[in-house]
Amino acid sequence: MNRLLKGWFPTISHPLVISAPMLATSNGTLAAEVSKAGGLGTIPGGSIFTSDSANLQTLDQELLTARKILNLNDKLETPLPVGIGFLTFHHSTTTHFPSTIPPLLIKHKPLVIWLFAPDPSSRPHQQLIPLLHKTGKFWGLKVFVQVGSVAAAREAMQDGADGIIAQGIDAGGHQWAQGAGVVSLVPEVREMLRQEFDGKEVALFAAGGIVDGSGLLAMLVLGADGVVMGTRFIAADESSAPGHAREVILGAEDGGISTVKSHLHDSVKGVTHWPKFYDGRAIAGPSIRDEQAGLPLEENIAKYKETEAAGDNSRNVYWSGTAVGLVKNVMPAGRIVEQVRNQAIERMAELKASL
Predict the structure, then answer these.
(1) 55-79 pLDDT, tens digit each
(2) Does 14 qualify as catalytic in the annotation?
(3) Cβ pair 148, 179 in contact under 8 A
(4) Fewer CB in 10 Å around end: N or C, the chain?
Protein backbone atom coordinates (compact mmCIF):
# COMPACT_ATOMS: atom_id res chain seq x y z
CA MET A 1 0.00 0.00 0.00
CA ASN A 2 2.89 2.39 0.66
CA ARG A 3 3.92 1.97 -2.97
CA LEU A 4 0.36 2.66 -4.13
CA LEU A 5 0.08 5.83 -2.05
CA LYS A 6 3.50 7.03 -3.19
CA GLY A 7 2.36 6.53 -6.77
CA TRP A 8 -0.74 8.59 -6.12
CA PHE A 9 1.02 11.26 -4.07
CA PRO A 10 4.75 11.46 -4.92
CA THR A 11 5.58 14.06 -2.25
CA ILE A 12 4.34 12.12 0.79
CA SER A 13 6.34 10.32 3.44
CA HIS A 14 5.22 7.26 5.36
CA PRO A 15 3.36 6.76 7.56
CA LEU A 16 0.94 9.26 6.04
CA VAL A 17 -0.66 12.05 8.09
CA ILE A 18 -3.58 13.95 6.53
CA SER A 19 -4.93 17.21 7.91
CA ALA A 20 -8.73 17.44 7.92
CA PRO A 21 -10.53 20.12 5.84
CA MET A 22 -12.07 21.91 8.83
CA LEU A 23 -14.21 24.95 8.10
CA ALA A 24 -12.94 28.10 9.83
CA THR A 25 -9.72 26.31 10.79
CA SER A 26 -7.99 24.77 7.77
CA ASN A 27 -6.73 26.98 4.96
CA GLY A 28 -4.31 27.05 2.04
CA THR A 29 -1.31 27.90 4.19
CA LEU A 30 -1.90 25.10 6.69
CA ALA A 31 -2.56 22.58 3.91
CA ALA A 32 0.58 23.57 2.02
CA GLU A 33 2.77 23.31 5.12
CA VAL A 34 1.37 19.86 5.91
CA SER A 35 2.12 18.71 2.36
CA LYS A 36 5.60 20.26 2.44
CA ALA A 37 6.34 18.10 5.48
CA GLY A 38 5.38 14.92 3.64
CA GLY A 39 1.77 14.82 4.77
CA LEU A 40 -1.34 15.57 2.75
CA GLY A 41 -2.99 18.88 3.54
CA THR A 42 -6.62 19.57 2.71
CA ILE A 43 -8.70 22.73 2.33
CA PRO A 44 -12.43 23.08 3.07
CA GLY A 45 -14.58 23.71 0.01
CA GLY A 46 -17.91 24.14 1.76
CA SER A 47 -21.33 22.85 0.77
CA ILE A 48 -22.87 25.44 -1.56
CA PHE A 49 -21.89 25.10 -5.20
CA THR A 50 -23.81 27.85 -6.97
CA SER A 51 -21.82 30.13 -9.27
CA ASP A 52 -22.03 33.01 -6.75
CA SER A 53 -21.01 30.86 -3.77
CA ALA A 54 -18.73 32.64 -1.32
CA ASN A 55 -17.36 29.20 -0.39
CA LEU A 56 -15.98 28.69 -3.88
CA GLN A 57 -14.53 32.18 -4.10
CA THR A 58 -12.68 31.62 -0.83
CA LEU A 59 -11.56 28.18 -1.98
CA ASP A 60 -10.09 29.61 -5.17
CA GLN A 61 -8.00 32.06 -3.17
CA GLU A 62 -6.83 29.43 -0.69
CA LEU A 63 -5.73 27.15 -3.53
CA LEU A 64 -3.75 30.02 -5.04
CA THR A 65 -2.12 30.55 -1.64
CA ALA A 66 -1.20 26.88 -1.39
CA ARG A 67 0.31 26.90 -4.88
CA LYS A 68 2.42 29.94 -4.01
CA ILE A 69 3.73 28.42 -0.77
CA LEU A 70 4.60 25.21 -2.61
CA ASN A 71 6.51 27.22 -5.25
CA LEU A 72 4.21 26.10 -8.04
CA ASN A 73 3.02 29.52 -9.24
CA ASP A 74 4.89 29.21 -12.52
CA LYS A 75 4.05 25.51 -12.92
CA LEU A 76 0.31 25.62 -13.53
CA GLU A 77 0.30 22.23 -15.25
CA THR A 78 1.87 20.58 -12.20
CA PRO A 79 -0.74 18.96 -9.93
CA LEU A 80 -1.20 20.69 -6.58
CA PRO A 81 -0.35 18.23 -3.76
CA VAL A 82 -3.30 19.14 -1.56
CA GLY A 83 -6.88 17.98 -1.25
CA ILE A 84 -10.26 19.71 -1.14
CA GLY A 85 -13.12 18.68 1.15
CA PHE A 86 -16.72 19.09 -0.01
CA LEU A 87 -19.92 18.55 2.00
CA THR A 88 -22.55 17.06 -0.29
CA PHE A 89 -25.91 17.34 1.48
CA HIS A 90 -26.98 20.68 -0.06
CA HIS A 91 -29.36 20.63 -3.02
CA SER A 92 -26.79 22.49 -5.13
CA THR A 93 -24.68 19.32 -5.05
CA THR A 94 -26.90 17.86 -7.75
CA THR A 95 -27.94 21.09 -9.48
CA HIS A 96 -24.67 23.07 -9.64
CA PHE A 97 -21.66 20.96 -8.61
CA PRO A 98 -21.33 19.36 -12.08
CA SER A 99 -20.96 22.79 -13.71
CA THR A 100 -19.10 24.90 -11.13
CA ILE A 101 -16.58 22.46 -9.66
CA PRO A 102 -14.85 20.90 -12.71
CA PRO A 103 -13.50 24.26 -14.02
CA LEU A 104 -12.09 25.04 -10.58
CA LEU A 105 -10.40 21.65 -10.41
CA ILE A 106 -8.94 21.97 -13.89
CA LYS A 107 -7.53 25.36 -12.93
CA HIS A 108 -5.83 24.17 -9.72
CA LYS A 109 -5.36 20.39 -10.25
CA PRO A 110 -5.60 19.18 -6.63
CA LEU A 111 -4.63 15.56 -6.08
CA VAL A 112 -7.59 14.59 -3.88
CA ILE A 113 -11.26 15.40 -3.50
CA TRP A 114 -12.76 14.44 -0.14
CA LEU A 115 -16.56 13.97 -0.05
CA PHE A 116 -18.67 13.82 3.10
CA ALA A 117 -22.29 13.86 4.24
CA PRO A 118 -24.33 13.05 1.13
CA ASP A 119 -28.09 13.35 1.12
CA PRO A 120 -29.13 9.67 1.25
CA SER A 121 -32.35 10.37 -0.61
CA SER A 122 -30.43 11.37 -3.75
CA ARG A 123 -27.12 9.48 -3.25
CA PRO A 124 -25.16 12.13 -5.18
CA HIS A 125 -21.80 10.38 -4.96
CA GLN A 126 -22.95 7.92 -7.62
CA GLN A 127 -22.79 10.79 -10.09
CA LEU A 128 -20.06 12.91 -8.52
CA ILE A 129 -17.28 10.32 -8.28
CA PRO A 130 -17.34 9.35 -11.99
CA LEU A 131 -17.53 13.07 -12.86
CA LEU A 132 -14.52 13.83 -10.69
CA HIS A 133 -12.51 10.95 -12.13
CA LYS A 134 -13.30 12.12 -15.65
CA THR A 135 -12.38 15.72 -14.80
CA GLY A 136 -9.06 14.81 -13.22
CA LYS A 137 -7.98 11.84 -15.30
CA PHE A 138 -5.08 13.75 -16.85
CA TRP A 139 -3.43 14.47 -13.49
CA GLY A 140 -4.55 11.40 -11.52
CA LEU A 141 -7.22 12.93 -9.28
CA LYS A 142 -8.34 10.60 -6.49
CA VAL A 143 -11.62 10.68 -4.59
CA PHE A 144 -11.88 9.90 -0.87
CA VAL A 145 -15.19 9.45 0.95
CA GLN A 146 -15.60 9.96 4.69
CA VAL A 147 -17.80 7.33 6.32
CA GLY A 148 -18.97 6.41 9.80
CA SER A 149 -20.13 2.85 9.30
CA VAL A 150 -19.28 -0.32 7.41
CA ALA A 151 -22.44 0.09 5.33
CA ALA A 152 -21.44 3.61 4.29
CA ALA A 153 -17.96 2.36 3.38
CA ARG A 154 -19.48 -0.34 1.21
CA GLU A 155 -21.68 2.23 -0.52
CA ALA A 156 -18.68 4.49 -1.14
CA MET A 157 -16.82 1.61 -2.75
CA GLN A 158 -19.81 0.81 -4.94
CA ASP A 159 -19.84 4.46 -6.00
CA GLY A 160 -16.18 4.25 -7.06
CA ALA A 161 -14.18 5.78 -4.19
CA ASP A 162 -10.39 5.45 -4.25
CA GLY A 163 -10.03 6.00 -0.53
CA ILE A 164 -12.17 5.47 2.55
CA ILE A 165 -11.85 7.74 5.58
CA ALA A 166 -13.28 5.76 8.48
CA GLN A 167 -14.37 8.31 11.06
CA GLY A 168 -15.03 7.02 14.55
CA ILE A 169 -17.24 8.77 17.07
CA ASP A 170 -14.02 9.77 18.85
CA ALA A 171 -13.67 12.52 16.25
CA GLY A 172 -14.39 16.17 16.76
CA GLY A 173 -16.82 18.04 14.55
CA HIS A 174 -19.64 16.59 12.49
CA GLN A 175 -20.03 12.83 12.26
CA TRP A 176 -22.59 10.04 12.26
CA ALA A 177 -24.95 10.44 15.20
CA GLN A 178 -24.81 6.67 15.70
CA GLY A 179 -21.54 4.89 15.12
CA ALA A 180 -18.54 3.07 16.53
CA GLY A 181 -15.24 4.23 17.90
CA VAL A 182 -12.33 4.20 15.48
CA VAL A 183 -10.72 1.20 17.21
CA SER A 184 -13.52 -1.13 16.10
CA LEU A 185 -14.61 0.71 12.95
CA VAL A 186 -11.27 0.60 11.13
CA PRO A 187 -10.64 -3.17 11.36
CA GLU A 188 -14.24 -3.98 10.46
CA VAL A 189 -14.09 -1.74 7.39
CA ARG A 190 -10.74 -3.32 6.46
CA GLU A 191 -12.23 -6.79 6.72
CA MET A 192 -15.19 -5.77 4.55
CA LEU A 193 -12.79 -4.42 1.92
CA ARG A 194 -10.82 -7.68 1.94
CA GLN A 195 -13.91 -9.82 1.59
CA GLU A 196 -16.00 -7.80 -0.84
CA PHE A 197 -13.53 -5.72 -2.86
CA ASP A 198 -10.50 -7.99 -3.08
CA GLY A 199 -8.17 -6.84 -5.85
CA LYS A 200 -9.52 -3.29 -5.81
CA GLU A 201 -6.88 -0.63 -5.17
CA VAL A 202 -8.28 1.31 -2.24
CA ALA A 203 -6.67 3.17 0.66
CA LEU A 204 -8.15 3.19 4.15
CA PHE A 205 -7.54 6.05 6.56
CA ALA A 206 -8.51 6.32 10.22
CA ALA A 207 -10.02 9.49 11.69
CA GLY A 208 -11.03 10.26 15.25
CA GLY A 209 -9.10 10.64 18.49
CA ILE A 210 -5.65 10.66 16.87
CA VAL A 211 -3.23 13.44 17.77
CA ASP A 212 0.17 11.78 18.17
CA GLY A 213 2.47 9.01 17.02
CA SER A 214 1.03 6.41 19.36
CA GLY A 215 -2.39 6.95 17.83
CA LEU A 216 -0.94 6.75 14.33
CA LEU A 217 0.85 3.48 15.09
CA ALA A 218 -2.28 2.00 16.65
CA MET A 219 -4.29 2.75 13.53
CA LEU A 220 -1.66 1.17 11.28
CA VAL A 221 -1.84 -1.99 13.39
CA LEU A 222 -5.63 -1.99 13.07
CA GLY A 223 -5.40 -1.93 9.28
CA ALA A 224 -5.34 1.73 8.28
CA ASP A 225 -2.92 3.00 5.63
CA GLY A 226 -2.61 6.39 7.31
CA VAL A 227 -4.51 8.76 9.56
CA VAL A 228 -6.50 11.97 9.46
CA MET A 229 -6.05 14.51 12.25
CA GLY A 230 -8.24 17.52 12.93
CA THR A 231 -8.15 18.61 16.57
CA ARG A 232 -4.34 18.61 16.66
CA PHE A 233 -4.18 21.09 13.78
CA ILE A 234 -6.48 23.56 15.54
CA ALA A 235 -3.37 24.24 17.61
CA ALA A 236 -1.13 24.80 14.58
CA ASP A 237 0.52 28.16 13.96
CA GLU A 238 -1.16 28.36 10.54
CA SER A 239 -4.66 27.52 11.78
CA SER A 240 -7.44 30.04 11.16
CA ALA A 241 -8.95 29.24 14.57
CA PRO A 242 -9.11 32.32 16.82
CA GLY A 243 -6.90 32.56 19.87
CA HIS A 244 -9.70 31.82 22.32
CA ALA A 245 -10.43 28.55 20.49
CA ARG A 246 -6.82 27.46 20.81
CA GLU A 247 -6.86 28.33 24.51
CA VAL A 248 -9.90 26.12 25.06
CA ILE A 249 -8.30 23.23 23.18
CA LEU A 250 -5.00 23.54 25.04
CA GLY A 251 -6.77 23.79 28.40
CA ALA A 252 -9.02 20.76 27.96
CA GLU A 253 -8.40 17.47 29.76
CA ASP A 254 -10.03 14.04 29.89
CA GLY A 255 -11.58 14.27 26.43
CA GLY A 256 -14.17 11.57 26.97
CA ILE A 257 -15.72 13.78 29.66
CA SER A 258 -14.81 17.28 28.48
CA THR A 259 -16.28 16.72 25.00
CA VAL A 260 -19.75 15.51 24.09
CA LYS A 261 -21.66 14.42 20.98
CA SER A 262 -24.89 16.36 20.52
CA HIS A 263 -27.21 18.01 18.02
CA LEU A 264 -27.30 20.96 20.42
CA HIS A 265 -23.97 22.26 19.12
CA ASP A 266 -25.78 23.13 15.89
CA SER A 267 -29.22 23.88 17.30
CA VAL A 268 -28.02 26.53 19.74
CA LYS A 269 -26.40 28.43 16.86
CA GLY A 270 -29.49 28.16 14.68
CA VAL A 271 -27.77 25.80 12.23
CA THR A 272 -30.44 23.61 10.66
CA HIS A 273 -29.01 22.41 7.34
CA TRP A 274 -27.27 19.27 8.62
CA PRO A 275 -29.37 16.10 8.17
CA LYS A 276 -30.51 14.72 11.52
CA PHE A 277 -28.50 11.50 11.27
CA TYR A 278 -25.37 13.64 11.75
CA ASP A 279 -24.43 15.31 15.00
CA GLY A 280 -21.11 16.67 16.24
CA ARG A 281 -18.59 16.39 19.04
CA ALA A 282 -17.42 19.57 20.77
CA ILE A 283 -16.23 20.82 24.14
CA ALA A 284 -18.99 20.44 26.74
CA GLY A 285 -19.62 24.11 27.52
CA PRO A 286 -22.35 26.09 29.28
CA SER A 287 -25.01 25.34 26.65
CA ILE A 288 -24.57 21.60 27.14
CA ARG A 289 -24.61 21.92 30.93
CA ASP A 290 -27.76 24.04 30.78
CA GLU A 291 -29.46 21.47 28.54
CA GLN A 292 -28.52 18.70 30.96
CA ALA A 293 -30.03 20.77 33.78
CA GLY A 294 -33.32 20.96 31.89
CA LEU A 295 -33.15 24.38 30.21
CA PRO A 296 -35.55 24.54 27.23
CA LEU A 297 -33.89 24.88 23.82
CA GLU A 298 -35.46 28.28 23.14
CA GLU A 299 -33.93 29.72 26.31
CA ASN A 300 -30.60 28.10 25.53
CA ILE A 301 -30.60 29.70 22.09
CA ALA A 302 -31.47 33.07 23.63
CA LYS A 303 -28.53 32.78 26.03
CA TYR A 304 -26.20 31.93 23.15
CA LYS A 305 -27.36 34.94 21.13
CA GLU A 306 -27.08 37.24 24.13
CA THR A 307 -23.48 36.29 24.92
CA GLU A 308 -22.50 36.33 21.25
CA ALA A 309 -23.89 39.85 20.84
CA ALA A 310 -21.92 40.96 23.89
CA GLY A 311 -18.67 39.60 22.47
CA ASP A 312 -18.56 36.91 25.14
CA ASN A 313 -17.03 33.65 23.87
CA SER A 314 -18.03 31.52 26.85
CA ARG A 315 -20.91 29.82 25.03
CA ASN A 316 -19.08 29.32 21.72
CA VAL A 317 -19.06 25.86 20.19
CA TYR A 318 -15.52 24.50 20.07
CA TRP A 319 -15.39 21.38 17.92
CA SER A 320 -12.98 18.85 19.39
CA GLY A 321 -12.26 15.13 19.47
CA THR A 322 -11.75 12.93 22.50
CA ALA A 323 -7.93 13.13 22.29
CA VAL A 324 -8.02 16.86 23.06
CA GLY A 325 -6.39 16.26 26.44
CA LEU A 326 -3.22 15.19 24.63
CA VAL A 327 -2.89 18.50 22.77
CA LYS A 328 -0.60 20.62 24.90
CA ASN A 329 1.14 23.14 22.65
CA VAL A 330 0.97 25.22 19.49
CA MET A 331 3.55 24.54 16.81
CA PRO A 332 3.93 24.83 13.02
CA ALA A 333 1.76 22.42 11.03
CA GLY A 334 4.76 20.90 9.30
CA ARG A 335 6.42 20.24 12.62
CA ILE A 336 3.27 18.51 13.87
CA VAL A 337 3.38 16.16 10.89
CA GLU A 338 7.06 15.38 11.39
CA GLN A 339 6.66 14.89 15.13
CA VAL A 340 3.71 12.52 14.80
CA ARG A 341 5.41 10.51 12.07
CA ASN A 342 8.68 10.24 14.01
CA GLN A 343 6.86 9.30 17.21
CA ALA A 344 5.11 6.46 15.39
CA ILE A 345 8.41 5.14 14.04
CA GLU A 346 10.01 5.38 17.50
CA ARG A 347 7.06 3.64 19.18
CA MET A 348 7.24 0.87 16.59
CA ALA A 349 10.92 0.30 17.33
CA GLU A 350 10.24 0.28 21.07
CA LEU A 351 7.44 -2.24 20.60
CA LYS A 352 9.61 -4.54 18.50
CA ALA A 353 12.35 -4.41 21.11
CA SER A 354 9.91 -5.35 23.87
CA LEU A 355 8.44 -8.40 22.16
Answers:
(1) 999 999 999 999 999 999 888 899 9
(2) no
(3) yes
(4) C
